[in-house]
Amino acid sequence: MPEIRRSRGINRVIDILDHLQKSDAPLLISEIADQIQAPKSTVYEIVNLLISRSLLEITGDDKRVFLGRKLYMYAAAYQHHFPLIGLARPFIEKLALETGEIAELTTIVDWKEGILISERGKRSYWWGGSRNGISSPLPLTSAGQLLCSHMSKEEMASFFKTEDFQYDGETKTTIDEFYKRCQTAKKNGYGVANGLLDKYLSAVSAPLFENRLRVMATVCIIFPTGEMESRFDEFIDKAFQTRDSIQKLLYNPKETMP
Question: What is the tens place of the pLDDT at every residue in 174-202?
Answer without folding.
Answer: 999 999 999 999 999 999 999 898 889 99
